[in-house]
Every structure is written in structure tokens, then in C-alpha cells.
Amino acid sequence: MSYDNKVIVIAEAGVNHNGDYDIASKMIRVAAEAGADFIKFQTYKTEALVSADAKKAAYQKDALPGDESQFEMLKKLELSYEQFANLKNECVKQKIGFLSTAFDFESIDFLNKLEIPFFKIPSGELTNFPYLARIAQLKKPVIISTGMATLEEIESAVSVFLEFGLPKQKITVLHCSTEYPTPFENVHLNAMKTLAEKLNVSVGYSDHTLGVEVSIAAVALGARVIEKHFTLDPNMTGPDHKASLNPNQLKEMIHAIRNIEVALGSSEKMPSTVELQNRVAARKSIVAQKQIQAGDFFTEHNITTKRPGTGISPMKWKEVLGKKAKKTFNPDDLIEL
After folding, report:
1. Secondary structure of the chain in the HEC alphabet?
2. pLDDT tens sequence across 6-31
3. For the whole model, what pTM was predicted?
4. Domains identified in the chain and CATH numbers
């Protein structure tokens, strides 16, 4: 999948709005100002997503200690469909793409009606065949996160979309580790290259590490999509704030990604226009080391190499040695044959 042939940067708002529409709206403005291509939320009906007595994940317990269930936590963070429709309109005003991850069938259908450009499959739904099949039938491009998954599980998920006729050009697979935050030693960024080789699809990275360097490194390794959580304030109460970038960090990361994207350039090794201009001044020529009389032979004792590179290249040293001077050369004169 390509988006103007550049790296797609998804600013992951997730549920860092804390169930507050005004915060969500402000996050759109922040993501747009930072230069993100998309801001992404999470759309779900809590009753269709999680059982009433389901426990919170370990990182959620760390962020929100207490006896609150996962159901109770998610219900507080849920936004209505009407609010999401308004958030999409706000994205249009701010000139940033709107995305949201659906976690149930009703939300899939709703987001499809909102005409999102592609579906983002979260890591937790990677092994949910009915969910994958429902999205596959819509024939839209997909971006698939792969946290907690084996290569075989990822291949199985991709095969669902292929079976429904979605071409590989519309599938992007994101390397990911479902730890919040992910320690550097658990990133294994080279696995992203393995996904590209084994699956023959575009790849990217969904980053849950602290800081910005791993996302930047992922782009240098060939990531076509970067997804990164951000928040208005990491000190806010909520399950994901502590593992999210603040607004300044988000802007810094995107700026660095765009620089790396330009720096990657062409795979062809060739001098730039500026280098061609500098070549004469930086390279050397064969010159006289001392005065050489007409008829003398060029030897290692009477010639040497010095700047500028306007004469015979030192790579022709062996060809010059033993030749006879046809005129007199003073020290530093360019040797001519």
C-alpha cells in the first residue's frame, strides 16, 4: 500500500482522550500541527468487545490500580458513533486523515460508512477469523499489527485477506510488541525485515517504546508505515498515557522521519551534483615532486600526488612510471604524457 509514495505516519490517539470529546478534538489539532498523515482512534461497543468479568491487562493494572474490571475501564473510555463522525469532520478541517480501529462488527460497518481509507487490524484481533473475514469482504486496504503473534499466525491472518481476493499490494504488516512500554531489548526490529521477506508485502512498525529513536530506525530499515501513540500529557490518568509521546516528541519524531525519508534517496551509488563540483578540489593529480628535465624518466622519486584533481588521476600511477618526460616540469607542475 502506498500513500503518495512516502512513509505513512499514524499518530495513535487510541483512548488517550479518556472518553472526553474535547480532548479528542484537541488531539486532532496537535497531530495535524505535528505533520502526521493520520490520527487514529479506537471505535468499539464495550458490550461487544469484552466480557463483564474480564480482568485488565498487566500494564493496565499498573496504570490504573484497583478492582475496576476491563469492562468498566473501557466503558469510561468509549466514544459514541456520533462523536466519531464529528471527529472525522474535524479531521477534514485540520487537513489530516481520520482513522479508527474497530473492535466489533457493528463498529466495522460504521467505520466503513464513514469511508475510512483503510482498516487497521489491532494485534489482539489477529487470530479472530470472523473479524478478519468481515473486514476482508469490504475489499479495502488493511494494515495489520502483529504483537504477540508467531510468524505462522501472521501468515494465517494474511491468508484470510488473500482468500477474499485482496491483493498483497493492499496489505501492510506492522512489526509490533504488545508491551507498554516495550523495552529496547524486546523490540527485535530486524524481525520487520523477516516479515517483508517471508510475506512479500509492505511492512512497517507499530511502536510502543519510549522515545522516538526506534521509529526512526524502522524507517531507515524500510518501514512504509509508522504508528506511534501520543498524548496531550503523559501524566494524565489512563491505560496508555505513560507509553505515549507528548506533542513536542511527536513533532520531533515526524520531522526526523521526513529527514530520513529524504536521506534514503536512491539505491544507485553515484555522486551528487554538489559532489561533482567538489571533486576537483578534493581529489589529487600526479605532479612533479622536483624539477624533471625533458628526457628524464618518471620515477617514484620525482613524481608525487597533490591537489587539485585537474590532471592525470593517481589511479594511473603505474602507467606513468617509466614513461619519458617530453618537456621540463617544475615542482608541483601537473604531469602530462
Report:
1. CCECCECEEEEEEECCCCCCHHHHHHHHHHHHHHCCCEEEEEECCHHHHCCCCCCCCHHHHHHCCCCCCHHHHHHHHCCCHHHHHHHHHHHHHHCCEEEEEECCHHHHHHHHHCCCCCEEECHHHCCCHHHHHHHHCCCCCEEEECCCCCHHHHHHHHHHHHHCCCCHHHEEEEEECCCCCCCHHHCCCHHHHHHHHHHCCEEEEEECCCCCHHHHHHHHCCCCEEEEEECCCCCCCCCCHHHCECHHHHHHHHHHHHHHHHHHCCCCCCCCHHHHHHHHHHCCEEEECCCECCCCECCCCCEEEECCCCCCCHHHHHHHCCCECCCCECCCCECCC
2. 999 999 999 999 999 999 999 999 99
3. 0.89
4. 8-264 (3.20.20.70), 268-337 (3.90.1210.10)
pLDDT of residue 52: 84
Q: How confident is the model at residue 1 (pLDDT cuts 50, 70, 90)?
A: low
What pLDDT, on the 0 to 100 scale, is given for residue 299?
A: 98
